[in-house]
Structures are given as structure tokens and as C-alpha cells.
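Appendix C reproduces, verbatim, an entry submitted by the partner laboratory led by Prof. M.T., so that reviewers can inspect both the input and the predicted structure.
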Amino acid sequence: MKNTPYNFIENYSRWKNIIQIHDNKKVLDLKTSSAKFKVTKESKIASAGSCFAQYVALHFKTMKFNYLEMEDCSENAGFFSANYGNIYTTRQLLEFFNRAYSDNVEISNFWISDNIYIDKFRHSQGPLVFQDDDQAILNLKNHLHSVRSVFKNADFFVYTLGLTEAWQEVDSGMTFPTCPGTVAGNFDVRNHVFKNFSFSEVKSDLEEFIEKLVIINPRIKIILTVSPVPLAATAINQNVAISNSYSKSVLRAVAGEVSSNFDNVDYFPSYELFSLPQFENLYDIDNRNPKKVAVDTAMTLFNQYFVEDSSLNYFLNQYKIICDESNYDKG
């Protein structure tokens, strides 16, 4: 071979070398020096995103890191820094941020039946009983105050991109976490429409969120991941594998481009671990939810990449991940 840049690349930059490694803790062989920043045990860490993002919260809580919990989360909402539940799409993330910093808190945020209130944009929270609308509004305002505390106080914000498919409300233009009627509420064909976000839309929403977040908290660092959990079902009339390939490709491409464009944003390749062909049985019997050993491996790799003490290992004992999207598979 003539003298080219490929004569000088590292061993892990050649596919033939990586494909021969069957130890999934070594295959990514991440260069810790390439990480833009390091997390310490004193760093204030917050997280949000899809159901896979809950492993991030459990990871830091298990290792006794300074994981921010600004609100008591309901048992149905999963593990996050406040009781916002899964935030699957970047449009939902942006709207969530805008709502937190808006004074416009209306009763139209709820589905109401007698004294049962369900927040349209926090389905996993479940139904709550309030005496009247004022009490429901106060509860929502308190929640949004907690969310503002998360964004203001966090040193690190870990966000896991999960989906491009979503459902929106025609009347308000807002984006739901899940299709109404699958987890909460009732589906209204006149007021609920399907949306599959494009690369440019996902990227624009994520960049706008980051730009607004930095204004609130100039010191914050953001770590992006892409959920390796496949779509449970697609609302598009095609094979779910095709929809899943589109969704993950868009999200991975956006995460890569955005992390390249912002000095305070980096990417962690948990998705790549699950997509390498030499590894089998990383998923449970449903071939969708990660096995415990795979999660342990991903989080150990996270430590090697981002945590100042990279010798730490991560072993999760008990966990119950709340995945609203799994309800799509019950039809």
C-alpha cells in the first residue's frame, strides 16, 4: 500500500480487528482522552429521554454519584431527575423546556373526568385526584418549578434520543409522549395526528433546546446517547424493522452532528455496542429489551469514557424500567 493516512490509524479503527474481538467490554476500546469532559462524584448530574435513559439515572444512583432528584417521582414515571417521565422525541424535549419556562399553565394540559386529572404530556405519571382545577394547576406549576431547578443546577445533562415517531394534538400543536389511548386518555381521530420527524427537524429541535439551555445554565455539559431499544410498533404501514432503521439512523446522525457542532456536547456510543454483529444475546427473549449484562457493559464503558475514575465498574442489582412505548405492542 502506498503511503496514505490509513497506514497510521489505530487498530480499533480497522473493522477486521474489531470484528475479531468477542469481549464486549473491549470492543469499543474507547480512548478516554477523546471525551470532551469528565464527570466526578461531585458533579451534579441530571438525565432525561427514552426508557433506556432510566438506566443512566440508576447507574449514577447505584454508584452514589450526585444525581439530581428535584422532585419525588411517581412509581409509574420511571427514574429521572424530576417527574416528567419518558421524553422520547427532541420535539417533546423542546416543548417540555418551553413549557417549564412559560407562565402559560392552563387546565387544557389535563384530561379531566370527575376529579381525576391526567397530564396530557406526562402519561406515565398516571391519573391524579384533585379537589378542583386550581389544585391541579398548582401541582403542575410545582412540577415545572422542579424542572427549572434541574436545568439551572445540573453540571451535566444526559439525554437519550429514543424515537422519531410521535403523536401531536391539533388544537395546541403539542407533542405527546405516547399515542393517546395507549397509556392514558382517549384517541381522537379529529384532534390527534401522527408525525414522523425528519433529520432536519430533529436536529433543529435539539439545537434550539441546547441553545436555550445554555442561556439558563452556561456551565452545563450535555452527553447524548441513542437508545438501542427497537421500536415496539410503527404507525406507518410498513415493516417495523424499516421504521426502526429510519428512526435510529436519523437519531444517531443527529447526535453525531450536534455533538460535533457544540463544544459543550459529546456523544456516548451505547447504541453501537448493541448493533455490532459479533455479539449475540444482548437482548432478552423478546429481542427488544436489553439484558442486565448488556446494560452493565454499556454503563461500565460509560465510566471508562466519561467518569474521572474510569476503574469503576457498574453492576445493577434490581431495576424496573418504565417503557410507555411497549404499550404499542398490545394491539
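The radius of gyration is 20 Å. Additional entries are available on request from the coordinating office.
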